[in-house]
Amino acid sequence: MNSIQLEYFLSIARMGSFTAASRNLHLTQPALSKQIQQLEEELGALLFIRRPHGIRLTPEGKKLLKEAEEIIRRIRNIPAELNDLHHTVSGELNIVCTNFLSRTIMPGLLKRLLEKYPGICPRIRETTARQHPEMLMNGSADIGLGNIYQLGKQLSCHPIFKSELVLIRSVLSPLAQK
């Protein structure tokens, strides 16, 4: 049994006749019949009841129909799954961020990051934002979160959110008058 025979079987089952399936598959009817005969011999079961105006699936044919649909679906998904595997992000990710960001923004960012890339293992290191460029350049960090300081030409900056930092005070405070 091979995937081509299963494709032929599915085409006959869906089209309802050997004639329609052979046209759809661009095969001669004898070539299609021979492939199905070989499949039936290998399985030791009759898959179709052949009638003058089409076919009917036997109980064995109905069982094979379910299995063949799943097998062919899985075969067709293999290239996409291999492509996904090739492009899967995994491994250790060293992140540097400020103390403030590690306690405020980082928990939510990490949650979303791990949902999107479950194969990564984030390592968080709290530093000052001024240390980030050097750590990124020497390879001790993969990414950094913090304020923008002098980055140099080998680093790029991508804003991830905007924030207004404000001073909050009581209206009764002596500072309120200033």
Tell me the layout of helices and strands:
Layout: H1 3-15, H2 18-25, H3 29-43, E1 48-51, E2 54-57, H4 59-86, E3 90-97, H5 99-104, H6 106-116, E4 119-126, H7 132-138, E5 143-145
Parallel strand pairs: 3-4, 3-5
Antiparallel strand pairs: 1-2
Fold and architecture overview:
It is a single chain. The chain has 178 residues and is an alpha/beta fold. The protein has 2 domains: 3-85, Winged helix-like DNA-binding domain superfamily/Winged helix DNA-binding domain (Arc Repressor Mutant, subunit A, Orthogonal Bundle), CATH 1.10.10; 90-145, Periplasmic binding protein-like II (D-Maltodextrin-Binding Protein, domain 2), CATH 3.40.190. 49% of the residues lie in helices and 15% in strands. The protein is built from 7 helices and 5 strands. Helix 1 (3-15) crosses helix 2. The termini are far apart.
Tell me the Rg in angstroms.
Answer: 32 Å
Strand content: 15-25%
Low-confidence segments = none
In total, how many beta strands? 5
Structural class by sheet pairing and helices: alpha/beta
- Count of the separate structural domains: 2
The name CATH uses for the topology of the largest domain is Arc Repressor Mutant, subunit A
* Widest sheet, order of strands: 4-3-5
Q: What distance lies between the first and last C-alpha atoms, to the nearest angstrom?
A: 87 Å
Question: What kind of sheet is the major sheet?
Answer: 3 strands, parallel
CATH superfamily of the largest domain: Winged helix-like DNA-binding domain superfamily/Winged helix DNA-binding domain
CATH class call of the largest domain: Mainly Alpha
What is the N-to-C order of secondary-structure elements (H for helix, E for strand)?
Answer: HHHEEHEHHEHE
Number of helices: 7
CATH A-level architecture of the largest domain: Orthogonal Bundle
Helix content: 40-55%
Mean pLDDT: 87
Tell me, briefly, the overall form: elongated
